[in-house]
Design a protein that fits this description.
0% strand, 73% helix, single chain, mainly alpha
């Protein structure tokens, strides 16, 4: 398994763990401030740096294309997991504020099954995949450019 795959796999596993911890905290009534700490959105600031670092270390011919692929896949994987939590929230009528129809979620109000099980989870997933990809490409591109400057500098003469 390549280093890129390890970073992706570890990121997806970390995201799954964070999602599970957040659901448990929400179900036990933890405050919204605590619950926000356990969100996968934070990972969209961290993993583009890790992806870019690995890409630059491998010196790929098309580093920005590889970065886009990694960020997009990571965003899709994590948002599919989150979409499943929204579907479960609809089925089990979870009361966490993020699932409330009043807050843009899919629980409560006059939410029907199409909206609760498909439309809201997929809408949220699409929005977050787009935003995570844009933010990730900005952060990752900056990292690629900074890392390139350091690795391509000529060695000092002795």
């Amino acid at each position: 398994m390549s280093d890129d795959q390890k970073v992706m796999n570890n990121g997806v596993l970390l995201a799954a763990l964070i999602i599970i911890v957040r659901i448990v905290l929400e179900q036990f009534g933890a405050s919204e401030a605590v619950n926000r700490i356990f969100g996968v959105a934070w990972l969209y600031f961290i993993f583009p740096v890790l992806f870019a670092w690995g890409i630059r270390m491998k010196e790929y011919a098309s580093p920005f294309k590889m970065l886009l692929k990694d960020i997009l896949l990571f965003a899709v994987y994590t948002r599919v997991m989150v979409a499943v939590t929204y579907m479960l929230a609809y089925i089990f009528k979870w009361s966490a504020p993020r699932f409330s129809a009043d807050a843009g979620g899919n629980v409560g109000g006059n939410m029907n099954a199409w909206w609760g099980l498909l439309i809201v989870p997929l809408r949220n997933a699409f929005f977050w995949v787009v935003m995570a990809t844009i933010v990730g490409m900005i952060i990752g591109s900056i990292t690629l450019l900074l890392k390139k400057g350091r690795t391509s500098a000529p060695a000092a003469a002795a």
